Amino acid sequence: MTNSNAARTWKLASWNVNGLRAVLKKDPSFTDIVHQLDADVIALQETKLQEGQVEIDLPGYHQVWSYAQRKGYSGTAVFTRVEPLSVRHADSLLPFAGEGEAAELLAVAATEGRVCALEFDRFWFVDVYTPNAQNELARIDTRMAWDDAYRAFLKSLEDETGKPVITCGDFNVAHNEIDLKNPKSNRGNAGFSDEERGKFTELLDAGFTDTWRSLNPDVEGVYSWWSYRFNARKNNAGWRIDYFLVSDAIASNVRDARIRNDIFGSDHCPVELEIEL
């Protein structure tokens, strides 16, 4: 008889596809890449889809989608071999929005399909596409409101259910200088502003571990996003902005974390996590 309480190793993957319809037309195919990743749970960001625009045949996977109200924009999805117990979306962040302008800004961001949160028996899996601060930090106030609410939301999942959290996705920030090729020239730009980096520090300090960096504390030159300009990927002039974070309580359960820069099809590459729970 199988022991239902026995620990198992979960293989998880996350990928900002920067337009799923475009990826579906490329070679290798999206389904080929899914099979290559062979993950129990696969999170996507920036699907840029509305409901009914594509049908993806992935036998053995349950599909959870979060669509932006604005067509061709943002959006997240999760494909999982294990059916979730419950699902939440970005509107679940609204109780943590604060008041005044911050609440108004977050209310707009919450319509952009940026979160798929899935509850499983032993943990929460939360897929996120964090708002970009944009050129000259034009959307930094929205970004700050989002970061505060998202951090509070993750902690609320832990507190309400007693389950640890695994969150992944495009966090749109390189945390430290080691996480991008050209830190000095990018200091203060979107994705490497003091404000964004500070909020990411607050998230980690709230009880989360950056899994890849914890296993590779001094490794340089490994990135998950490259601009389409200036042959950035060929020259490996990239940024590490795609993460798997886990509750500190299960950080010791991490068995492996990888950045799959051998997989193409987007300006991001997939990131992976193996964890025993």
Instruction: Give the low-pLDDT segments.
Output: none
Cα-atom Rg, whole angstroms? 18 Å
- Please give the share of residues in helix: 10-25%
Biggest sheet: strand arrangement = 3-4-2-1-14-13
Average predicted local confidence, pLDDT: 97
Query: In percent, how much strand structure appears in the residues?
Result: 15-25%
Count all strands and give the number.
14
Q: Give the SSE string.
A: EHHEEEEHEEHEHHEHEEEEE
* CA-CA gap between termini: 19 Å
Enumerate how many helices there are, as a single number. 7
Largest sheet: 6 strands, mixed
Give me the secondary-structure category. alpha+beta
Shape: globular
Please give the structural blueprint.
Blueprint: E1 9-16, H1 20-24, H2 30-37, E2 41-45, E3 62-66, E4 76-80, E5 86-89, H3 101-109, E6 115-119, E7 124-129, H4 140-161, E8 165-170, H5 183-186, H6 194-205, E9 208-210, H7 211-215, E10 225-226, E11 238-239, E12 242-247, E13 254-259, E14 271-276
Parallel strand pairs: 1-2, 7-8
Antiparallel strand pairs: 1-14, 2-4, 3-4, 5-6, 6-7, 8-12, 9-12, 10-11, 13-14
Summarize the structure in words.
The chain is α+β, with helices and mostly antiparallel strands. The protein has helices at 20-24, 30-37, 101-109, 140-161, 183-186, 194-205, 211-215; strands spanning 9-16, 41-45, 62-66, 76-80, 86-89, 115-119, 124-129, 165-170, 208-210, 225-226, 238-239, 242-247, 254-259, 271-276. The two termini are 19 Å apart.
Essential attributes:
277 residues; alpha+beta; globular
